[in-house]
Amino acid sequence: MSVSAHYQSEEKTLTIQVEGDFNFKLVSDFRSVYKDMNNQSIKPVVDLRETKHIDSAALGMLINLRNYFGGDNAEVCILNCRPQIRKILTVARFDKLFEIK
Fold it and tell me: Which of 23, 49, 73, 82 has its CA 20 to 30 A from that of 17?
């Protein structure tokens, strides 16, 4: 399990990658990759390509990320979901809060 991030200054995009299980054990690691960013001008992208499973703590972390970057005004994108993860996000109605690709 790991979290990493890459900031693309030209596009003002912060891409956060989660590898393995996205769960409670990653709370502080997940928060640490974006907490010092200027939240007004950055578009966060969460890449779940290497994520095998998410739990309710992960859903909370995604909501906290969205709130940090502007709440209802934030444009947070979630990319590369496995089918079972996409289903969890859809059942939780995250497709109404995030752009899921």
Answer: 73
